[in-house]
């Protein structure tokens, strides 16, 4: 039995008729696929469904757990992809992105999936294929890619860029794309390309690639990307800091602090709160980075960061080693409402301080 009409309607509304695997806006060409096949006991409830385009449906249909050759998606993975799309649609990020990239595509000749018929009928020349190969190839020097691209005509360039933003899946191909973005000849397209990369990295990529993205992304362009898109990206990373899983925070903290200026305003307080907690973490790589970054903040950011220090944090600071340093360091930038707390923290004996503030 297929899903009933109501179930399907709910799924399509939640995904905004965007395919949960390839992110193509599908319109009527969308299907409700079973995550666990009915033959394997999968139900017809919402939770077992995933909205997919015809191509992706066919692809997961061809997959069989009993013959794991070519086995691409597990049910857990399908669900998590679906939920991510639902989430991004719910807070408007994905739809807004599709609309803006569609609009820009029309004026810009950087193509989105299906938006231009030309791209479907265009047959890449051997030369074009070679450049794509090179850009995806791990041994290529990324700065060579824009030079080679320059030799192509505009349609060929668009095809190469489109293919790369669709296919990149490792640090090297990411760096090829960044090299294109920062080269003068592709100035006009850099924002569109970076937003496509950011969307894909947010939804699809593992923590290692997210780290590589953060460490190498041109920050000046990142700052100008759509705010909703950055919110989706940084929310996940700040969530990782908050959960304080050592292996993950050790991986991302250094690179995240390098691009902290591009964190959207609504997340800045959460970010600093997490960073301040990190100074007391057992994560051996992340902890010293957090300490160093907080000590070296400029005036405005120091104020934001210090406003995240509350009395609980200071009461439970048994070592009284780092926080006094941090608070002293930014003495000129204390938020007004923290002045008394900080003064007392620095002056009073630990026990006195605790008695005073535990009562309040
Ligand atoms: Zn699809």
Automatic annotation (TrEMBL):
GO molecular function, one term: nucleic acid binding
Keywords, sorted A to Z: Endonuclease, Hydrolase, Nuclease
One Pfam entry name: HNH
Annotated ranges, domain HNH nuclease: 7-58
Transmembrane segments: none
Hydrolase in keyword set: yes
UniProt name for this protein: HNH endonuclease
